[in-house]
């Protein structure tokens, strides 16, 4: 991935499915913060990021090989307009707070992101360009969190 990132100055979209079922006997995947930093440095036109995690154990953040900090470096270094996170349990309310100041983020899809709560909804309601939000099976977001989104005039809610 690092080698790929060196030649991706025009890359605008990445979709990764990280299947961790085969890694249960290993500590982490080879996708690390260093990989994310390389993408942030070399892929400055990246606009669409889609990450899906498959086969994760309940304590899986230790299995993925990168941190929320590394992920946010990538998000803050690139003009991400569309972000899709599926079972990204490393991503929590602090991540939502960081996203809320993202100047380009227009579309956010959170699917089975169990670490995002009502507090995260309060933060993301203030994202300057966010107009499309999809929440699916995010059990820690309640009616209280959804009500927080009512303050965001631009949002169109997905199902």
Please give a structural write-up.
- The protein is an alpha/beta fold and 159 residues long.
- It has a single domain, classed as Alpha-Beta Horseshoe (Leucine-rich repeat, LRR (right-handed beta-alpha superhelix)), CATH 3.80.10.10.
- The chain has 6 helices and 6 strands.
- It has a 6-stranded parallel beta sheet with strand order 1-2-3-4-5-6, with no helix packed on it.
- The longest helix is centred in the first third of the chain and has 10 residues.
- The protein starts with a helix and ends with a strand.
- The model has no long low-confidence stretch (mean pLDDT 83).
- InterPro entries: Leu-rich_rpt, Leu-rich_rpt_Cys-con_subtyp, LRR_dom_sf.
- One of its GO terms (cellular component) is SCF ubiquitin ligase complex.
- One of its GO terms (biological process) is SCF-dependent proteasomal ubiquitin-dependent protein catabolic process.
Blueprint of the fold:
Blueprint: H1 2-6, E1 13-19, H2 33-42, E2 48-54, H3 68-77, E3 82-86, H4 93-99, E4 107-111, H5 118-124, E5 132-136, H6 143-148, E6 156-157
Parallel strand pairs: 1-2, 2-3, 3-4, 4-5, 5-6
Helix pairs in contact: 2-3, 4-5
Q: How would you summarize what this structure contains?
A:
One of its GO terms (biological process) is SCF-dependent proteasomal ubiquitin-dependent protein catabolic process. The protein is α/β, with parallel strands linked by helices and 159 residues long. It contains six helices and six strands.
């Amino acid at each position: 991935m690092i080698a790929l990132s060196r030649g991706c100055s025009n890359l605008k979209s990445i979709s990764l499915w990280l299947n961790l079922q085969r890694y249960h006997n290993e500590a982490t995947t080879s996708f690390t913060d260093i990989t994310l930093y390389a993408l942030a440095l070399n892929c400055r036109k990246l606009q669409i990021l889609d990450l899906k995690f498959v086969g994760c154990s309940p304590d899986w953040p230790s299995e993925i090989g990168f941190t929320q900090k590394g992920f946010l470096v990538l998000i803050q270094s690139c003009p991400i307009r569309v972000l899709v996170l599926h079972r990204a349990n490393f991503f929590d309310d602090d991540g939502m707070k960081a996203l809320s100041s993202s100047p380009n983020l227009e579309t956010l899809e959170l699917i089975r992101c169990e670490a995002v709560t009502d507090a995260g909804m309060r933060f993301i309601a203030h994202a300057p360009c966010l107009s499309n939000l999809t929440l699916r099976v995010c059990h820690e977001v309640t009616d209280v969190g959804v009500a927080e989104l009512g303050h965001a005039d631009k949002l169109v809610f997905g199902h």
